[in-house]
Amino acid sequence: MSKLKNRLNRLKKTHASSDINEKDQVTSSQPSEVEEWGGVGAVTETTSYGSFIKRLIKIPFHKKVGFYPLSQLVDKAEVLCHLQASESNIQHDKMLFFDTETTGLGIGTGNVPFMLGIGYYTKEEFVVEQLFIRNPSEELAMLTYMNEKFQQFTHLVSYNGKTFDLPLLKNRFVLHRKTYEGEHLEHLDLLYPARSLWRNTLTTCKLSYVEHQRLGIHRVDDVPGSMAPTLYFKYLSEKDPNIMADVFRHNEIDIVTLAVLSIYFTTLFEDTELYKSIELDELYRLCLWFNKMELTDQFQQVYELLIKRATEEDPNYFIPLAMIFKKKKEVETSVFLWREFIELQGHQRMINTEPYIELAKYYEHRKKDFEKAIYYTKEAEQRVYQRISFSRRDNKYVETIKEIQKRKTRLERKWMNKQEKREKMDDVSHPKQIQINI
């Protein structure tokens, strides 16, 4: 028993001495130098919950970014309310432009926003603030700072922020058991108007591509956003602030681009000269915008220009335009557009049959002119048969042919009934004279 006790005592002493040596080793290996962030133009920001890194950039109003000076949004931001169908007043100095850089995709707890970029207008300049955490323990301090910023603004402006940036940020607040205090902010996500305007004219609606194609902003040696997580993990390993310099620059341009894109959208509501330079499909999408927003004057201006250009470039736009007026119950304008389309297309074999069907409906139900309705129905039938003869997928048009033939049969029956009624009316008003021979 005594031998076992002595052995345990020896092991205890050995373990204690190893603990002391290990502590001494850890203490001696801890870095004593404070990280230098001056190389990226950032400083340490301290709050009651700890510290994080903040980079501040001030851009003068008169500075031109791409095609537009930043001052152009001043006193014009109120028209942006049409983009979100809101009646609230938007002021340029109450807009908070917002973007994040994260460790990955998705909005789950495993994805950490290591950088929050915000931008806003002051009296004389546009300010960009970038909040960066050197490790996950600094996130709560950064979120606390963001809560304070939220109280100074009424609108949040982002690009895909509704489905990614903002839900992710809210989840981080929940994770830290802290209340998100930005619920009062109305969210203006510019991705949605961008997609509705450029989905058929631009190969992608990524912010970096939109700014290059439509805003005149050209990035030089820009690090892709997809590389940001890799650079952040490299920074966590090497602790070199210069590794993050390109990510700071990338995020800064994203924030400034949000302001310039907002300026571009304001010009669409006011600058009629801009309509002449945009592509035909953009002009049509803009027409849809103004119709949906019930902006009658702007809609009429764009519509007249669209009709003129479509006549020369692509009459197919007459068909969706006609449907707009049909829904507005301005049927005579729709009839004009359908007729114009047919006249411009002439006797092309692959012509769209929709205008013929719509005109057949118009003459059948509104004008009760069954003869013209039959004419347009037969024209539609003829063109469908022509399509079948030029198409290998004959079954595609079988149902269309059935519907047209059914319509034609019904119209012919109506026309015959009308003719019979007319003949009976003629007999009543002009009875036949009977000659009696004596």
UniProtKB/TrEMBL annotation:
Transmembrane segments: none annotated. Gene3D superfamilies: Ribonuclease H-like superfamily/Ribonuclease H. Residues 1-31, 418-438 are annotated as: Disordered. Residues 418-430 have a biased composition (Basic and acidic residues). Residues 1-15 have a biased composition (Basic residues). Pfam families: RNase_H_2. InterPro entries: RNaseH-like_sf, RNaseH_sf, YprB_RNase_H-like_dom. Residues 96-262 form the YprB ribonuclease H-like domain. Coiled coil: none annotated. SUPFAM superfamilies: HCP-like, Ribonuclease H-like. PANTHER family: EXONUCLEASE-LIKE PROTEIN, YPRB RIBONUCLEASE H-LIKE DOMAIN-CONTAINING PROTEIN. This is Ribonuclease H-like domain-containing protein. It comes from Chengkuizengella axinellae. The lineage of its organism: Bacteria, Bacillati, Bacillota, Bacilli, Bacillales.
